[in-house]
Amino acid sequence: MKAILALSDGTVFEGESFGATGRASGEVVFNTGMTGYQEVLTDPSYAGQLVTLTYPLIGNYGITPEDFESRKVQVAGFVVRELADTYSNWRATESLDSYLKRAGVLGITGIDTRTLTRRIRHEGVMMGALSTEETGEELLARLQSATDKYDAIDWVKTVTTPEPYVWGPDESEAKFRVSVLDCGIKFNILRELAKLGIRTQVFPATATADQMLASNPDGIFLSPGPGDPALLGYAVETVQKLVATEKPVMGICLGNQLLGCAFGGSTFKLPFGHRGANHPVKDLPTGRVVITSQNHGYALDPNTLPADQLEVSQINLNDGTVEGLTHKSLPVFSIQYHPEASPGPMDSRFYFERFLKLMEARA
After folding, report:
1. Which of 108, 123, 152 represents a domain boundary (last residue)?
2. Which residues are annotated as active site (predicted)?
3. Does the annotation count 253 as an active-site position?
4. One of 27, 69, 253, 279 is an active-site residue; which one?
5. 19 and 127 together in one domain
6. Which residues are annotated as a binding site for L-glutamine?
7. Cα 259 from chain centroid?
8. Do 353 and 210 reside in the same domain of the chain?
9. 360 is a catalytic site residue
10. Active site includes 338?
11. Nearest to 323, CA basis, from 358, 357, 356, 296
């Protein structure tokens, strides 16, 4: 079946559909990773986006439930150059096509993803629409008359857990207990913390500081998540109160931005974001460089951060943006990238151990 992808700048791509049929819209972005399409599909930080993969052959190793990063497909739509007709993987239970059909998510294959990626790099991310039911002209007309814009929606509230839940070792076996502010947590973050003997209690993004502190946790974790941090005043207020307790705090991705905003910083939108598994980051105190997995469209403005309280500890070597913060007197730090990978390199996994050591020092 034919499928159409239209961009808000008037560009139209025609390909073949896979997955579900119908209509979808969202912000069009690209990811440069060679593997990990299943983790990308289920990463809550991709909510509201039509995700393009730059690697050309997708679907060749199928779908494995053990590798999900959340409870459902999070992307609004999926764009690939070539969908594999068959898959080969002893762990897989179904094809990418059947998985997206069950999830009700549209996909398009057979388009020039290289041209699409170049357009996004040159023009910046933009709204797009995907359809199996309309012509290119009809899709463009609907897209250009739409009032819903990605930056105007609080996507965190669409992906956060509705109720608190617990992950990790039993209470009697846990080394430490951590309260997590779920703005779009990935399961592998919880897995990595559990490997270190940390029992996590995951709270909705709208939870109050009092609710998160009621069990007297040993530490606080600020999760990744989708969308514009400027819309998350309620979460920033919570983070301010959590930091004031002087408990160890670690933040990842959106958690890094929330932490910066809690100290008065502000964010700005990147032209085309950082999404992929090959982003070099330099740790300024040591000079060490790690290759990181990233997925974000916004960054902290370093000029708005209080230099007497926060140190910009890491930068992106591609564009110099803020990749890490360390508080100068409190046991608080954050990173903009994903040490849990899934997908991507595990070079920075040791930051979970750093968080553990902060809690050990205060035990």
Report:
1. 152
2. 253 (nucleophile), 338, 340
3. yes
4. 253
5. yes
6. 45, 225, 227, 254, 257, 295, 297-298
7. 16
8. yes
9. no
10. yes
11. 296
